[in-house]
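User: I'm putting together notes for a lab meeting next week and I want to include a structural view of one of the chains we've been expressing. I don't have a solved structure, so I'd like a prediction I can at least talk through. The sequence is below, exactly as it appears in our construct file.
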Amino acid sequence: MKRAMLLVASIALTTLAVSCSEDKDDPTPIPVVTAINPTSGEPGDNVTITGVDMDAATSVTFNGVAATIVSNSATEIVATVPEDATTGKVSVTTAGGVGVSPDEFTVVIAGAVQVESISSISAVVGDNITLTGIDMMTVSSVKIGAVEATIVETTETTATVTVGEGSMLGLNNFTIVNNGGTTTTSTETLPFYVIKKIDEAFWGTFDNPEADARAFGGGGADPEESTAHDISSAVVDIAEYLPTAIDGNFFHMEGYSSTTISGSYMTQRFTGSQTAGVFTDFFGDASVDDIYFNVQINFGNLPDGYKTSEIPEDVLCDFRIRDIVNNDDFEYYPTWIGLEAMGYTPDENGWWSLSIPLSMFVDGSLTIDNFDAEQVQRFGIANRRNYGTGGTAGVTVTAADGGVLATTSFDNAIITVGGPMYK
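Assistant: Thanks for the context. Below is the predicted structure for the 423-residue chain, given as structure tokens.
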């Protein structure tokens, strides 16, 4: 009996020791901020910060500026916006670490500019940008990032400025001074990118015959499946489906898809093949997340169910960056629901304005990690669909063979570095 009691006591002591050891080794959890309410306000306003593990907070900051803590619990903190706060994230510090708000807090200064929109989402150095909002008339200084912009014109509701030389490529905020104070925009609620565009000689705009011959002068049409393959003005009499233009000419590819002949690959249009290294300076050391394939594109009429299909092979076309030296294609195959999931929608005439980051381009076993800017020689678009049957090699496919009309029209195909051209 004594032996049993000793054994139980020993187990209890061991358990207690292990438990104490585990408690001692348990780190204090890092606070997690899930929301701030409201997401904008003036210095002196109280803001409610919601999250977990926020008890015993040692500090709350608004974009790095310390705030006064009014109340504090594990799941909710009320803090006062400090006088010299600027737009940015709200951070909560405890013994466990630092938690950062998912959204930025926009500081509103009474009498200072309030920016409601920026047009457009991106611009190159030297372009004009219009800020729309309140109290714009007395704007005396505008910085894009850290670089002063030139003020072109102000009204009560707008300020037009020119992007200054030396502006940093990529996402930037605006710092605007007027008689009422200083306002800094949020890059989350009002994103703006300083970008550079590939040389104009390689733009696919199709409004200048000489330039178009240099730019999109490559690619071709599958003889079995293509019935129209040229700029819109040249195929207006033969195309079965020619959409309304966005502006001027566009390139149009049309034909009857037959997956039995070409695996749904019908026509393509590329920039002319260039010498390796031509684009090296343009790409520089940019990350693939900062390189965008921008295009305005119309996919025409689609069979029932194609727009809602979740089958990855039910693609609308094929965007390509080609390295001919290594015989590698880096490709992106958009689907209707995939584009919608990214927030894109077509306009009333069926045109999509797309900016796809190069990080989304892959091809088979290749990954974008293989991307070698020095070897890029051309980029383009292929008319590719996953529908249509029948047809005989060497004979043009028709609807009677089971072919289904597939069209791709595109305009303003331009590669950018630093950000997208379109939202």
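A couple of points you could mention at the meeting. The chain has three domains: 32-107, 114-194, 200-417. The CA atoms of residues 151 and 247 lie 29 Å apart.

User: Perfect, that's what I needed.
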